[in-house]
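Blinded run. Sample ID left blank on purpose so nobody reads anything into the name before looking at the predicted structure. Input follows.
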Amino acid sequence: MSGTLVLIATPIGNLGDLSPRAIAAISECDALCCEDTRRTGLMLNHFGLAGKTYIVVNEHTEHDASREVVERLLAGETIGLVTDAGTPGISDPGERIVRAAIASGIEVSAIPGPAAVIMALIVSGLPTSRFVFEGFIPRSGQERSSVLTEIAAERRTVVMYEAPHRLERTLADLEVACGPLRRIVVARELTKLHEEIRRTSLHEAVQHARNQEPRGEYVLVLEGALPPEPATEEQLEEALRRELANGMSKRDAAAKVALTYGAPKRLVYELALRLS
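Blinded prediction complete.
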């Protein structure tokens, strides 16, 4: 019989957040996948769990390591998977190994625990019932521009990660895309000694970032876009005239304008009938 892959959430800063279940799972696994043996080793030494067999799984090794992990799982071993901090697979290694294990018919389970995305969201004061997670947005090029445009139009709360040396630029780009008054929460060093949570506008966040040396790990929680103002009758009539001038029938022009502006179809059709 094959073994089990166990995804184990680890602290994002405060070692007191490692749960008893996580400690038990680590102690019982035959081998432990981790990003950095030194960082994981320090954590395990703190809990008296030294001496584990490690398999290094990071962004460079995950593809090759997945084969070894699957082979060991098929041989009946129990393999744990941790990252340097937080929940595996969330902007961290683990996703590829989970897919490979599932594809091989191997059982996958998880020990829940800390996740910076969730902690930042719930302390932000912004709506939490509907949100999206962008992870680290692209660093440059058209892909970055496209993602920023999508984020600016997103109605749900948006959560992002960012490195300290890119913080100011990302905040500045968000200000251009979303406007200076959009609310944002900048969370730094969550659960650690120097934890800081700033609830502010994008403009003020940019100014603060320019005047301070960014340090630590950052989570950005951005207010969703407000719904657009409803179109006035004058705007709808103007749009109808353009479509009619392009040869559309009144019925088709009304349907297109209603869809474009999110206006009631009956109202727009009545406006179209009134036009000469």
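Unblinding after everyone has recorded impressions. The first strand starts at residue 4 and ends at 8.
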